[in-house]
Amino acid sequence: MLHLLLIEDNSADVLMIREALRQSPIPADVMIAYDGEQALRMLEEFGFKPDFVILDLNIPKFDGHEILKRYHSAQSAPVVVFTSSANGEDKVRAFANGARDYVIKPTGFNPFVKAIHGILERWGKTSAACG
Q: Which of 9, 43, 44, 90 has the fewest Cβ atoms within 10 Å of its own Cβ atom?
């Protein structure tokens, strides 16, 4: 079973991601951080070691870019940015700070679920192979 950390403050997106996980053939256990401070506390203080992280850039307290800067290291789980930002500067900055993938949130339920399934397929298999 995959262990992932979802860093997302939008409750509607959290519900859709949970539904996508429920529908996925890849079993995943998810912990949710609703802001950057909570995410860093889970990762640093509590020592949670996810297989990978799904990160929204636009979150309160510490934005996604700050999370990437503080969390990224050679031993870190891969971070997949899943955001509504199509800004090219955000994408470049995310990769420069250690993101391994950058996926723009699609509109509509079915495309959203399909995007999450794609992330699970890509990064779940990668994480399983590394672990």
A: 44
